[in-house]
Structure formats: C-alpha cells, structure tokens
Design a protein that fits this description.
Elements: E1 2-11, E2 15-19, H1 27-31, E3 39-40, E4 46-50, E5 56-64, E6 77-83, E7 90-92, E8 100-102, E9 110-117, H2 119-124, E10 137-144
Parallel strand pairs: 5-10
Antiparallel strand pairs: 1-5, 2-4, 2-7, 3-4, 6-9, 7-8, 9-10
C-alpha cells in the first residue's frame, strides 16, 4: 500500500473531485446510471465525491494498492465504482481554489472504494474554525481491477 495523500482537504458545496480529463462534467453527468450517491464515476477520467460538510476542511486520505484491500467496517459509508485516468490524475477542490494533489495513478483500470465517517455530523456542522477538530473524514482507495458496476 502506498499513501498518495493524507491530511485536511478543503471542500465546497459538499464536493471534492478526482480529475484527469479537462472536460467539465456536472453532478448529474457523473452520477448518471449509477446506484450509489457518493462517488460519481460515470464520466471517463472523473470522480465526483460527495462530503457531509458543505464548506471547510475534512480529513482525507488517498491510498493505492496492488490488489483489493480488506474492507474496514469502522467506516459508516462505503461505496465502490470503477475508474480509469485519462491523463495525470489529481485530487482537486471545487474550482481548484482550495488546492490539489497529484495522485500518480497509472493509465490502467482501477476499482475505487470511497469511505466516509461522520458525514451526518458534517452535514449539520458549521465549518470548523482554526484548531477545532475535523468533523468528517474520508478514505479513497484505488487498486487495479477490470471495470464493474458501482
């Protein structure tokens, strides 16, 4: 396992993204035909990730595995989808205003698992002030796998 990113990440409008294609895609396009409502992967090269907190910092970790990792039942929400980068992949905040992180993903098909903890509390919370603990946290895991339904 390799950790590609860990730390606080800024979210706006309850959104953060994995981008590897330059075309703009909205929420409806990214979730079209999918069953889960947290990780929109219907547009090639994009992941549209939903958070509980509307605006502010959340805990975020991105991990890369050689094979499917075990599921950690400590997470309150867990969804999976398929993803294939269409270029250099990065975790990006809304409009890139809060930063971005290179993910160093190869040009292969991945299964992605998006896990959330504290989403309901984050949805109810005001943005954390400096020094306050983060309310919700997220884990995004990638491993090589053929495409499959979410």
């Amino acid at each position: 396992m390799r950790t590609l990113m860990t730390g606080p990440a800024w979210v706006s409008y309850g959104q953060i993204y994995v981008e590897s294609a330059e075309d703009y895609s909205d929420l409806g396009e990214c979730f079209a035909g999918q069953r889960n409502g947290l990780c929109g992967a219907a547009v090639p090269g994009k992941l549209f990730l939903i958070t509980g907190l509307h605006t502010g910092e959340v805990g975020f970790t991105v991990e890369l595995y050689d094979e499917m990792p075990a599921i950690d039942d400590a997470w309150e929400e867990i969804v999976e989808a398929s993803y294939r980068p269409r270029g250099a992949a990065m975790l990006m905040t809304w409009a890139g205003d809060g930063g971005w992180w290179d993910l160093d993903l190869g040009p292969v098909d991945y299964r992605v698992r998006y896990c959330g903890w504290g989403m309901d509390a984050g949805h109810q919370a005001a943005p954390p002030m400096d020094g306050e603990p983060l309310v919700d946290k997220y884990l995004l895991q990638f491993w090589p796998a053929p495409p499959a339904p979410d």
